[in-house]
Amino acid sequence: MDFKALTEVYKEELLENVIPFWLNNSQDLTYGGFFSCLDRQGNVYDTDKFIWLQGRQVWFFSMAYNNIEKREDWLNCAVRGAEFLKKYGHDGNYNWYFSLTREGKPLIQPYNIFSDCFAAMAFGQLSKATGNEEYAQISKKTFLNILSKQENPKGIYNKQVSGTRPLKNFALPMILCNLSLEIEHLLDKEITERTVDACIHEVMDVFYRPELGLVLENVTPDGELSDSFEGRQLNPGHAIEAMWFIMDLGVRLGNQSLIERATDITLKMINKGWDNEFGGIYYFLDRKGNPPQQLEWDQKLWWVHIESLISTLKGYQLTGSTECLHWAETIHDFTWNHFKDNEYPEWFGYLNRQGEVLLPLKGGKWKGCFHVPRGLYQCWKILENIDGKK
Question: The pTM is what?
Answer without folding.
Answer: 0.98
